[in-house]
Amino acid sequence: MEYKKLWLILASVFIGSFIVLLYFGGEIYQKKPPIPNQVVTESGDVVFAKEDIQDGQKVWQRIGGNEVGSIWGHGAYVAPDWTADWLHRSSIWILDTWAQEQYGNDYQSLSEEKQASLKAHLKKEIRTNTYNPETENITISEIRSKSISHMSGYYASVFGDDPALDEYREKIAIPANTVSNDEDMKKLNAFFWWATWSVETNRPGEDITYSNNWPGEPLIDNVPTSSNIIWSVTSIVILIAGIGALVWYYAFQRKDDLIIAPKIDPLLSIKQTPSMKATIKYFWVVTALLVLQIILGVITAHYAVEGNGFYGIPLNEWFPYSVTRTWHQQIGIFWIATAWLATGLYIGPAITGHEPKFQKFGVNFLFVALLVVVLGSMAGEWAAVKGYITNPTGNFYFGHQGYEYVDLGRMWQILLTIGLFLWFFLMARAIWPALKKKGENRHLLILFLLASVAIPVFYVPGLMWGETAHLSMVTYWRWWVVHLWVEGFFEVFAVAVLAFIFTRMGLVGTKIATTSVLLSTSIFLFGGILGTFHHLYFAGTPVGVLAVGASFSALEVVPLALIGYEAFENYRHSFAKPWMRRYKWPIMFFVSVSFWNLLGAGVFGFLINPPISLYYIQGLNTTPLHAHTALFGVYGMLGIGLMLFCLRGLSGKRPWKTKLLRFSFWALNIGLLLMAFTSLLPVGILQAIASIEHGMWYARSAEFLNQKIIHNLVYFRSVGDTIFALGVMGIAWFVISLKTGKAFVQNEEDSSVKNNTTDTFF
User: Fold this and answer.
1) Contact between 499 and 440 (Cβ < 8 Å)
2) Which residue spans traverse the membrane (predicted)?
């Protein structure tokens, strides 16, 4: 297929997908749940004002937001989903109040007939939309007003220091006095009430709620909609058809590239420029952040069974769960991104042999800027959660934004965006001389630069919301960053980088590498861009978002069906010539990327993609199952592989001792598998059963999550976690040993080259 046709396909996919993505962004803006000017009773008393709800959202952000329980299913997993919790508790309170008034007994003690009568009354009371578009007010009944007072008092006790709830706070890992100011608590309750009103209230003229009937709640007949079921079935059909079409095309069109690998390592001829050598400090930071992320992960996981400390140490007094979880996630993004950015800075001059003026200075300046953003954002998040930043605007810019994966304050986001554009400038100026030369390599270079510029460009959507932005719109833009930036264009960048590596090593021809990258990018983005919507099914979005998200998220999985071939090809490269032994373990990490792409992104990803599935398991442990195996399994393993590849080049001809790398490789992969299958998956399955049978509120309740079987499964995870952590420590020790020289073969007796032997598979 000619390059021109491939470029046209890619352009069509890109432009068409973003037109649809932006169109539905407009639809979400038009049809999002309204924030009323006032919430008033039938007698005219004002319960909440618009400013109370918006200010309450700011309080929620400051205390950790998505890192303290969840809203609309998005967030952390130890504390409840506040919308599902408020909905269930307030419904029970209303039913008990009516039961006492009418029958002199509580609701659960009534006969089925009486319960059914009260339940029908409750459904009408709760799901009827009383928002007036002319006055922009919501009118509530007296019983609803009383239920708000009841729930406000309850949550004031939870987030305050009521001794009667000490044990409950320990179970949900929330410190006492998380919100100590009465006015802040009133506003937080206003935000919780509005977020719950959005999931329990029917859209005007329809019999489905603003959240497409999520969360499941039998008391008000919140059940999956017909659209949910129809588009779930459709997504499975599309998946099967897509896999069949891809296999058919692959069988008839693909041709192997008949390349004879060079007899000697072509990369040894690359001159290490000053800026290339300067990237080594980036990999030291990558290693340090990786170790810190694992330590924070251990602490965060332990909070699920000991919510106020770590084996008796009152750690939550200094580093509450919301802080450790924030840092654990954010540092993961930081170290993976740093590994990839450093690889770009290393590869740029390696491609052309051109060292632009002041390139080393730019690399060093960017390094310092990176440290400022990492350390500054972490300090701001800690200060906000601990209550040292109380001004809402100050928190927004320098503290904790409260949105998962983009928690860092706006000023740190702006600095990070500037840094990403500076990174692209440094890399592009090094590649530019090669880009001006005509030839097949030019197409691959252009795609590499496009993938590179997409990294800063698609972080910009993280700047699209303000302090008082509507939660539906924040969710829309946030997933541009999380899905398109992290899961989308980083993937495209990775494909382009690996193509460059293997073509430069003489293992893949430029023509087939260019064709494969263009085609695979088109296929991936065809499902990936609009697949963003599968995160937005229940975020106050219209049914069209559910339909598009279900259809195209199924197509995201299609390219992964043939991932085994990619793994085999990568593994085969490690045996192409004897000199390839130098790169065996970087390549083995690339092989593991293919495995985790299939399992973590493919199998576990599709587990939560269909609307009917996500309806019951959004916000359960099936989500971190996908997140851990896809984010670390795919992007983390790739980051380690790229780091080792660059360090191999920076080490020159000196051979490595590789036993530690072999141990780390298998420890990381085995540990991650055990983490998934001995803890995250079984807990997620048990939660899914609870959600289906009783509702989302129960699957996320302290009552359910503190059962002995759940605690045992969390403790079982420590086996996989320990093996995984040892693998990380092995990587860290190896990087340190490269600096001290202990990782290099010191004499001929240590060298496998002398005996003409190779590393064994195990």
Assistant:
1) no
2) 7-26, 229-251, 282-305, 331-351, 363-385, 411-432, 444-465, 477-503, 515-537, 543-565, 585-608, 628-651, 663-689, 709-736
